[in-house]
Design a protein that fits this description.
The structure is a single chain. The chain is α+β, with helices and mostly antiparallel strands. The protein has helices spanning 13-20, 40-46, 50-53, 67-79, 127-142, 161-167, 171-174, 188-200, 248-290, 296-321, 330-344, 365-386, 429-440, and strands at 25-30, 35-38, 84-85, 92-95, 101-113, 116-125, 146-150, 156-159, 205-206, 213-216, 222-234, 237-246, 327-329, 352-358, 362-364, 393-402, 405-412, 444-448, 453-460. The chain has three domains: 13-125, PAS domain (Beta-Lactamase), CATH 3.30.450.20; 130-246, PAS domain (Beta-Lactamase, 2-Layer Sandwich), CATH 3.30.450; 251-466, Heat Shock Protein 90 (2-Layer Sandwich), CATH 3.30.565.10. The protein is 41% helix and 26% strand. Helix 9 (248-290) packs antiparallel against helix 10.
Length: 467
Amino acid sequence: MTTETFPDSTLDPKFQAFLDAAPDAIVIVDKSGQIVAVNALAETMFAFSREQLIGSAVEALVPERYRPHHERDRAAYLRAPRTRPMGLGRDLWGRRSNGNEFPIQISLSPIETETGSLVISIIRDVTAQRQAEKRFRGLLESAPDGIVVVDARGKIVIVNSQTERMFDYTREQLIGQSIEMLVPTRFHATHVHDREAYAADPHTRPMGLGRPLTGRKRDGSEFPVEISLSPLDTDQGSLVMSIVRDITERRHAEEMLQGSLREKEALLREIHHRVKNNLQVTSSLLRLQAGTIDDPAARAVFASTQDRIRSMALVHEKLYRSTNLSQIDFDEYIGALAELLFRSYGADSDAIAFRIEGERVILSVDTAVPCGLIVNEILSNALKHAFPDGRRGEITVRLQRSHQTCTMTIRDDGIGMPRDSGRDPRRTLGLELVRGLVQQIEGTFESHSARGSEFTITFPIDRSLHG
């Protein structure tokens, strides 16, 4: 090490200028503990003049209650001098000329001179740092969740009181331990892998997104948790802060809610089943009653009523078998209804083709029932009247969604609506029923009879049903 000469009273001006340019306070003492040199920052920090410090014992800068320990520590350092921090792991305090104390950090370095061994003390006032740490600690302790900070090796360096309560460990039992002690044993290997992957790409994010996470208490019991991760760059290296929330109560509430929903779903499914059965019973009673009537016109009325009841029953059957009890795939429903009507009227599917075009439309049950009745009326009329004497043709249903509305067009290429006896063909009982149902769903209705018949119904739908 370079050997320097320190005169009794003043330093070489160049060396003093070097000390004064340092970013921290510097105090140089001899082996007896007397101060032989200081820089300007040391004067400012301790509120002593250079003349007051030179030749004084270094203990003048130490609070009185620490002076006996300081003298022993100084003597021990001189027996094995080396560059190192002073008081590692302990809080160190300086004393100003007015007796006020403040926290400090000190690094010690030995130096050999012509006049003997000296010790250079580099001193930093850490008041602002301690205040920041205090604020940080206050934030940690006031947090409603557990906070665990780990280093790059996965060792715990900071925890808050909520973590102690959550995992039933004391702070002393946690600091310095592997974070895996808070993870169930069966997940250790996975957690180590995930921790290493996070270290390779650290960013603020939830942990285990889409996976249930589990914490482990000191007694081995487990509980569900949510964890958010945030990287921290510090002078001690890269750290990771984990914010841990015990979600036991929420999970319990969710399970209770799911249980309640399952019960309500079972009840609603049973209601749809019973409504369907009751409608089928009503349809069967009408069929039996129609069998006792000789008047063909009256039997036709009974048959039409049966078709309407079956169209409503079909909605409830679809809902009963569906995974979603509040909505129905309407194009699929139309296909099933058409199949029922073709069988009911003995229509030949080879002679009369049926097609569904356009987009998939999902309807709520409140809209599906009247729309089903509308389709039933128009399809029934087409099968009964549009293709007489074995005439071949086609019936098409087209569904088109636009924003929050649906346009349903039902078209056939049959003979069209009759215009005999001065009667308005659009005022039949079936079409009057259609108009009433269209008003019920707050829609509009148009009909045309050129080269067959065409009916266009536009009505509002719930946009949320289509995402």
